[in-house]
Design brief:
Elements lengths: L4 E4 L5 H14 L1 H9 L2 H18 L2 H32 L5 H6 L5 E7 L2 E10 L9 E9 L10 H8 L5 E4 L4
Parallel strand pairs: 4-5
Antiparallel strand pairs: 1-2, 2-3, 3-4
Helix pairs in contact: 1-4, 3-4
Length: 175
C-alpha cells in the first residue's frame, strides 16, 4: 500500500469523509449480517420457527419457505437499520464536522490520506457524561478503506487530547 499520513480534517474533505463513512458501513453489511446470524437469539428464531412449523404441519416445503422468509426478513430489517443509521449520522454530526468535532475543547476529527485520497476517518470528542467518575474521550465515525491500517498512528493525536481533560479513550462498537 502507498504511504499515508494523518492530518486534521479540512473543509475540502467534507464529501470524501461522508462517502467513506457510508461506503464503510455498507461494505461491511454482509459480514455484519453473518455475525448477527450467529447470535444465539437470532439463531434460535431462524432455526426454531421452521422446525416448529415442520413439527406442526409435517410439510418440508413450508419449513423451507419459512426459513427463506425469515432470512429475507432479517436481511431487509438489518439493511434498513444500517441505512437509517447512515442517514442519521450524515444529517447530524457529519453534516457540520467543524461544529461537531473541531469547535469544542478536547475534540478533533482526523483523516488518513494516501496519494491525495481520504482512506480513513475518525472523530474524537468527550463522552456525553462521565462513566464511573472518569472523563472519557469517545472515538466516533471510525471508518477506513479495505487494506488500510492506519489507526495505530493516531496515538500522538489521542495522547494530546487526553492531556486536555479526558482520563481514557472509549471506543463503542455496535452491530
Amino acid at each position: 500500500m502507498a504511504p499515508y499520513h494523518i492530518r486534521r480534517y479540512q473543509d475540502h474533505d467534507w464529501e470524501p469523509v461522508r462517502e467513506l463513512f457510508s461506503q464503510g458501513l455498507l461494505g461491511n453489511m454482509p459480514s455484519d449480517f453473518r455475525h448477527l446470524l450467529k447470535k444465539p437469539r437470532t439463531f434460535l428464531i431462524i432455526l426454531g420457527v421452521p422446525f416448529a412449523l415442520f413439527l406442526g404441519s409435517g410439510s418440508l416445503v413450508l419449513c423451507l419457505l419459512s426459513l427463506l422468509g425469515l432470512l429475507a426478513g432479517h436481511w431487509l430489517t438489518f439493511r434498513h437499520c444500517i441505512i437509517q443509521y447512515i442517514d442519521k449520522s450524515l444529517h447530524n454530526d457529519l453534516l457540520d464536522i467543524q461544529k461537531s468535532y473541531l469547535s469544542g475543547r478536547g475534540s478533533s476529527f482526523w483523516v488518513a490520506e494516501s496519494e491525495y485520497q481520504v482512506v480513513g476517518i475518525v472523530g474524537a470528542r468527550p463522552a456525553s457524561g462521565p462513566i464511573g467518575g472518569r472523563n472519557y474521550l469517545e472515538l466516533r465515525r471510525l471508518s477506513q478503506n479495505i487494506g488500510c491500517i492506519w489507526c495505530i498512528r493516531l496515538y500522538p493525536q489521542l495522547h494530546k487530547l487526553l492531556w486536555e481533560g479526558s482520563n481514557t479513550v472509549l471506543l463503542r462498537v455496535s452491530l
